[in-house]
Amino acid sequence: MSFYNEISKIFGGNGGDIVQGYNIVIADGNALYIDGLLRILEVGENSMRLLTKKVILNIEGTKLELVQSCGDTVVIKGDIIQVKVEK
Question: Residues 62-75: pLDDT tens digits?
Fold first, then answer.
């Protein structure tokens, strides 16, 4: 069972539609999981910018740390204040 496939089915997709662009999971405001990454544009303690397959994500917070980057997936930890989508 895939988390994203199950969500896609809830919203009327065929189970794979939702994973075509980018996906974000915020865990308790302290960790951020993103897949669909193309490139890391900017990394800082208070902000990060990431290019995904469809948009640029602007992450703001404090004590931000890029803890994992593997393929099209990144994990960021810190005090996540907001994630803005730039189309």
Answer: 999 999 999 989 99
